[in-house]
Amino acid sequence: MERTKLTPLVVSTILALLFSSSSATWEFVEYLTFLSCLTFHSPFLTNTHNLLHTKFSPLYKPILQSSLQNLRFSSSSTPKPRYILTPSNSGQVHASVVCSRKHSLQIRVRSGGHDYEGLSSQADVPFVLVDLVNLRRIEIDLESNTAWVQSGATLGELYYEIGSKSRTLAFPAGVCATIGVGGHLSGGGKGFLTRKYGLAADNVLDAIVVNARAQVLDRESMGEDLFWAIRGGGAASFGIVVAWKIKLVPVPPKVTVFTIPVTLEQGATDLAYKWQHVAPKLPEDLYIRAFFRVGENTKGSRTIVALFTALYLGNADQLEPILNSSFPELGVSSEHLQEKRWIETVQYFAGNKRGEKLEDLKNRYWAEKGYWVAKSDFVSEPISKESLRALWEVMLKGEPGLLFWDPYGGKMESVSESETPFPHRKGNLYNIQYYSKWQKAGDGEEKAHREWINSVYNFMTPLVTKNPRGAYLNYRDLSLGSNGGDGFASFEDAKVWGESYFKGNFKRLARIKAKVDPENYFRNEQSIPPLFD
Questions:
Q1: Whether pTM exceeds 0.85
Q2: What is the CATH number of domain 138-250?
Q3: Which of 31, 117, 422, 428 is paired with 282 by a 20 to 30 Å CA distance?
């Protein structure tokens, strides 16, 4: 095997470690042994500086910061990884697991960096950050209407590749283009095609995963239990998913979109009440999202502004009669309706300005980074007008945030709760995301926004699902409960948060964890604990 060369980067790292302090000798020794381990277990690795980054490496900080979407986790006090690894193939992922375990370092895996609690980038124990930024290959097969997409690709990159090769194929996943494929699919993945085709995880056909034993497995070799678990159960609890084989879905050459803003004074309460009864029962080709924010009315006073924004898999002439018969109160006319290619609607729903190029979907870096907190709920019974009016009063107090209501029904009604780990299907009218964002650092800012989101969330307690109160894993929320900084928790203790995300599927996930990772190597503050029979 070729001997590792002392590149200028390696030499500079060694010198920095030697002279940084007298206590750095052990860091130097660990660095060399870690480097040697990676080289030994990655036989095709010729430039280790493309894989291994220490805090003295020039790329360490840029890589660490590049995918941190929530600036709450970018402060000097945020725990930093001992090393950052940027593998380019499954062999290097294998080496990353082998060497991290050998050196008793935990692993955190990052694809797009949108984890709401920052668990993909930080830990309270010595850890390695495996950043999948170099695993972004996408291969579209138009004959089988499938694609292989590596976990480090973003949804925008995936959508662009699909749209550049076909006008009549799509993939049912989320709205934000900078979200990483790996985390999104492993947590479920919902978007404007969910009522027609289900979740992103429902449309996964195969996967390549590196498990806790550093074995590289596909669906056949991993077995159906593990394949079930990573499609909605949070893959970071079970290993590192390198790539996914997904099923592409048909869409018309032209689809229709619209957005209708309505204030309280214009009847937003009545429309929100009616939406709850209508949106989940509409034809599955039609998806109408409701969005609520604090704004101003014509007199300059604070009010609630509701936006109803929709995607219809058909042309405008077909949509008008559906709306006229099922939701005439919304007042949609031909002037509101826009026909677009499906790929163009991705930018439309992301709020991109007219005139931006489709190539912009490949931009991995979110231009609107900020600080935010979020929570989630599921609603199974319509909220009364009286309760809606009370809700608006709570929203109007303090630092304002947003509510997103995403309708269910359609395909989500027909898929069993146990088909994947994501159980929130039949009987749910819609999902709520509570979201509050700010731009200035400071404990006071965060406290004010947390107070707003907690007051709204607490108000909603009697109006949402119960026993357990549901939550969506991709809107991760540590206030539901935590395994602690070391990631260890019993099954009984973890049920506090686990059943909110997974309901009865949590026990099956824990039993699978015991089989595939009995030592609980892949763990974090909300990882699945092993349950031994």
A1: yes
A2: 3.30.465.10
A3: 422
